[in-house]
Sequence to fold (987 residues):
Amino acid sequence: MSDSSPTPSTIASAAPSPASAPASSPASGPASSQASPAAPLVEVSDLVVDFGDLRAVDGLSFRLEKGAALGLVGESGSGKSTVASALLALHRGTGARVGGTVGVAGIDVQRASDDELRRLRGGKAAMVFQDPLSSLDPYYAVGDQIAEVYRVHTKASRRAARARAVRVLDRVGIPDAARRSRSRPHEFSGGMRQRALIAMALACEPELLIADEPTTALDVTVQAQILDLLHTLRQETGTGLLLVTHDVGVAAESVDEILVMRHGRAVEHGPVAAVLGAPREPYTRELLGAVPRLDTPRAVKRTRYEIGAGPDAGDGSGDGGIGPGGGARPVANGAGPDRGARPAGDDGPAGGTGSLAGTDRVGERGPAGETGQVGGVRSGDVVLEAVGLRREFGRGKQRFAAVDDVSLSVRRGETLGIVGESGSGKTTLGRMLVGLLEPTSGVVRHEGREQSGVRPSVQMVFQDPVSSLNPRRSVGESIADPLRARGMGVPPLGRSREWGRDEGHIRGRVRELLERVGLEGAHYDRYPHEFSGGQRQRVGIARALAAEPHAIVCDEPVSALDVTTQAQVVALLGELQRELGLALVFVAHDLAVVRQVSDRVAVMRRGRLVEYGPADEVYESPRDPYTRQLLAAVPALDPEIAARRRAERKKLSPA
Amino acid sequence: MSGFGGFVLRRALGTAVTLLAISVIIYVVFYATPGNVAQITCGPRCSPVQVRQVAEQLHLGDPLYVRYWHFLEGILAGQDYSTGTSVQHCPAPCLGLSYQTDQQVTRLILTKLPVSLSLVFGAMVVWLVLGVGTGVLSAWRRGRLSERVLTGVTLAGTATPVFVIGLILMIVVCGQLELLPFPQYVNFSDDPEQWAWNLLLPWLSLALVEAAAFARLTRSSMLETLAEDHIRTFRAYGVGERSIIGRHAVRGALASIIALNANTFGSAVGGAVLTETLFGLPGIGQELVHAVNVVDLPVVVGMVLVIGFFVVIANAVADVLYAVADRRVVLA
Fold:
């Protein structure tokens, strides 16, 4: 450890000093007011950012006092990241039109010269970006990159800058910082990369830290570490923080004030406790209502959702302001125009531990149209079972088991949640259950029969609805694939006249499926890019349903979606499950979502099941220390609980 | 670094295998063709006795793989040739004997190779400096007038055949301005200074044609790199444009420049016929064209093998440089 590192107190004393006052004082109103000693760290008024015809930010104003922390919260397309970029005038020269005034650390960002801007960027206000892998240059050592930035602002010697880099890396908790500073970014783990980016931000002791989704690409436990780090740094250095995030929980953990954004405007702005505890605006309430909570058991939670059906109504809110239909209307808790307005869990047969699901619903005619087949399986029967599954990857010394001795089962009408962090083997397990991947040892049984390879009776819904649909084929064609694969639409020999009729049959069936997942039958001929993320995921679900499966394995089905969209998709899955008596396997990293949907939960770590049991038991009285650690890492919406959790985490992690 | 050593070793092995495969293909293509191979090899003026001798030398009575084995053995261990009256020994990298000129192919190539390598190595320096320089400049000045002018010039460079550029250069520089004498090849070992002066125009004309491709590649891959997230990071940290271009964006373009350079270099060793002919340089390309015209089979085969050798080696060197430029390659 370096002995000469500046103590936190020196940084803290340096930060609030009025060093920024003489920087520049243009004559405009807000800018000149910044020259006074009580000037806020950030003052944004009437900020407007246009990208071509698209208005990303529409008349936003806010202030951030020195040393304070503000969270910009909103769903994708709300303009929150654009605001972050505008604080450093990163739009300069990109063709975006920026209006209004932005003052940061006494500089009128809009009018500042390029040199003034360069001094501001990284020197007085430093940005921490979302994806720490792509945000560092892959070709240079991490320490060199930090040193480069430091030299831009301090004119220090190469050697001094290098030493500074090692000090800040040490400061953010990189072990053996002197040695690791010579590593390139790909040799770091995700969490370490994010620490390195924070170290870069700290290098010049800025007055303001702008963090744009700093933990979105990270696992919960790592996210908790990074948030704790930001918290400690802020306490010790008195740096102001502007946190941009889609995750209300992350904001609740880290800031004093929250500004909820939507379509480029401020919806609600106030202290964390007030905004989250007693939201005044309907949109804020909707947003909070959609956030899955760790402490709400499934049965209760379920009734809160209704099916958000209408394609434009439901998912448009997610991407509102971006798509051609920009500025889609807000949707008050789903309730689509024509279908599925049935309360999702009113008499929820799948509630509780729910292994006796949906018997009363079997007779109801689903779009599958073959309820007889579904009904053929007795309720509560084990649909999908894995015994002693093991899967190895790699050769020679690099050989490792991604999944190791996993046994589990899912019953009809039941949802099994599989949670784990990245690299825990949950996706590998999911793929083996579907038959996309052959196990190295162990067996998968479908309805009691040993199976290898893909079978129509077990289908998969993939994480990324963008890349799992062929962009060059219409969604109808994609959904029709499983039907054709099963021989539907292929004319019997010598009877090609029936071809046309069978094609019509397929189209009809695809329409049914589209409508069943809350889209319109007329969407058959549309292409994936015409849909929002949530709608694409509905298409993915329709495709899985086409094969009339008894079980569906969902691999992170909602992790790429905004919370409100997420809630709608989750509700849709639940409804389909009850109607069709499906067995669902829900693979996800998000503990709260898993709790919301699952009857039973399996927690994975390094390829093994560390805990497996009824959801309520696992969440309320976890036995395994790893499960406890995971649960403690989930951000809480209540700042007080967040503080308590932070203390708990300190106890749980020896570091 | 052990990972790096292993990587180099694997690449070397792969290169050896590739070379072997190339030799098989070339042998089969040229020596297993229908027709009287011995007659073709020996040349039109050979007597039936000589043709029989050649057939014996080439082991034409044996199955194909045995013949190939003798061919390979000759390259690796050397071979003796009897021309009826005397016995000629052809030492280790023996690429055979030209029965038409009674010359050993290896010796012939060794007299031509330095000329070609002088031309290509020099031209490479020029096309790298010109091409990459222009590319960096136009990426930096993107969207401005100077970039459009540069793009136009490089486009004109690709569009103009080398004999036009070379001819114009010769007429202007040597004829009108009399700055240089008309080029004449001088051995490097004889007089390095004259060597360079005489090669200056050939270098320039060959490089001007190739530089355009480098300029365009450099520009496009730099623009690609400039759009990446890590460039945004450095912009957001106040790092100046000069440093972003010079340090970060060029580094991102390096890999593709190395790859293109390997290909261009490899094919220019045997393919710079026009330049060689225009400037009267007795290089490999010119000799190959001649050998093809008179159907001197052993010379053609030997030259094609040597040219293939350079292409493969250039690519192997590029792979290693690639890995030096980007360590992640070693892991893959």
Remarks:
- The CA atoms of residues 384 and 610 of chain A lie 20 Å apart.
- The interface with chain B takes residues 88, 90, 117-123, 126-127, 129, 131, 134-140, 145, 148-149, 152-153, 184, 186, 197, 200 of chain A (CB under 8 Å).
- The first strand of chain A starts at residue 42 and ends at 51.
